[in-house]
């Protein structure tokens, strides 16, 4: 038996319960991974609130990424070993908010020795998402101007840093004057920073001024309601708005004719699993991510380490923030003797 966070009914922290769950032995091409650090990502918060892909499931364990150690091998597993440090992203049935999981080897990523468990846990999901956005969805080239909302968030920071590595002109938004210097130097390395107060949509003129009136090629919007229409006004002709969440509320209804009238714009709502499906792609993206981290091109600041058994107390606070910071869940150290009933 292992402890796992279970969602019995949707709607918030009061519906999360830490329970003992039976863990089966790994099957063919599967391994058991004992978690050491668990990523806390925006899609996980959506799942807990009943707004994600599991919204209609009666009982499930949320969690889309984690890092741990292989503790048992199933049949047919040749390229992994007991004791190996691995991470994973988007397992078939989620379930990372637990002490341990049974996983197919196709979703595993070996973790380099120079990265801690906690660093890897906060890097993997947003890092692979950033790689997907900047390399697959809309490849960023030297000199491209882009706008990244909420660069103080975990995902926003990594998008900005990776885009800077690709020699883009990165404009980041923050919600407070206190975050401007951090966005320029410490957490994102933005070329320019715009302060956008919570609920404010008046930033397009400043972005246009910073781009000599041309606008940006891409906007990465992690906020939603208050920034969506203003983001469209920031775009250059044939630009793309990439919607990556709604921490500030759902985006307003959009008339497609407005996209044509504003310069043949496009709106994308990408899901990582639709762009990165195969193990070769996962390993390719992870290798680049780890190399950039080792070179100091992508840095992470872990805002908080949260014991897994207190996640229900943290959920309400986190879902009210417009910036989801880089937080990591720390599971209790399980007794291997209690893994199986």
Concise account of the structure shown:
The protein is of the alpha/beta class and 341 residues long. The chain folds into 2 domains: 2-123 and 276-338, Quinone Oxidoreductase, Chain A, domain 1 (Alpha-Beta Complex); 142-270, NAD(P)-binding Rossmann-like Domain (Rossmann fold, 3-Layer(aba) Sandwich). The protein has 10 helices and 15 strands.
Radius of gyration: 20 Å
CATH topology of the largest domain: Quinone Oxidoreductase, Chain A, domain 1
CATH architecture of the largest domain: Alpha-Beta Complex
Main β-sheet description? 7 strands, mixed
The number of helical elements comes to 10
Low-confidence stretches: none
Kindly report the name of the CATH homologous superfamily of the largest domain. Answer: Medium-chain alcohol dehydrogenases, catalytic domain
Which sequence of SSEs, written as H and E, runs from N to C?
EEEHEEEEHEHEHEHEHEHEHHEHE
């Amino acid at each position: 038996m292992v402890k796992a966070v279970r969602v019995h009914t949707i709607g918030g922290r009061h519906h999360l319960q830490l329970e003992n769950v039976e863990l089966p032995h790994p099957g063919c091409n599967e391994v058991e991974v004992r978690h050491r650090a668990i990523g806390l990502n925006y899609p996980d918060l959506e799942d807990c609130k009943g707004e994600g892909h599991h919204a209609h499931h009666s009982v499930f364990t949320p969690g889309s990424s984690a890092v741990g150690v292989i503790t048992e091998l199933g049949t047919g597993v040749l390229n992994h070993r007991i004791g190996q440090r691995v991470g994973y992203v988007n397992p078939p049935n989620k379930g990372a908010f637990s002490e341990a999981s049974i996983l197919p080897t196709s979703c595993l990523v070996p973790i380099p020795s120079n990265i801690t468990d906690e660093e890897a846990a906060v890097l993997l999901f947003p890092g692979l998402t950033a790689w997907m956005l900047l390399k697959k969805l809309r490849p960023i080239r030297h000199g491209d101007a882009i706008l990244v909302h909420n660069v103080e968030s975990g995902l926003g920071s990594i998008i900005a840093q990776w885009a800077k590595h690709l020699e883009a002109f990165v404009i980041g938004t923050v919600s407070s004057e206190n975050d401007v210097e951090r966005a320029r130097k410490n957490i994102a390395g933005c070329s320019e920073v715009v302060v956008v107060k919570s609920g404010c949509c008046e930033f397009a003129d400043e972005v246009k001024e910073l781009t000599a009136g041309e606008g940006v090629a891409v906007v990465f919007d992690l906020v939603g309601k208050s920034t969506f229409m203003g983001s469209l006004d920031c775009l250059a002709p044939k630009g793309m708005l990439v919607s990556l969440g709604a921490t500030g509320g759902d985006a307003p209804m959009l008339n497609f004719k407005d996209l044509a009238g504003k310069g043949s714009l496009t709106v994308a709502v990408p899901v990582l699993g639709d762009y990165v499906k195969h193990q070769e792609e996962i390993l390719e993206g992870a290798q680049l991510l780890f190399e950039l981290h080792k070179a100091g091109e992508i840095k992470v600041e872990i805002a908080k380490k949260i014991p897994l058994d207190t996640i229900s107390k943290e959920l309400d606070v986190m879902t009210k923030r417009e910036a989801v910071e880089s937080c990591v869940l720390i599971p209790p150290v399980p007794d291997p003797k209690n893994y199986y009933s």
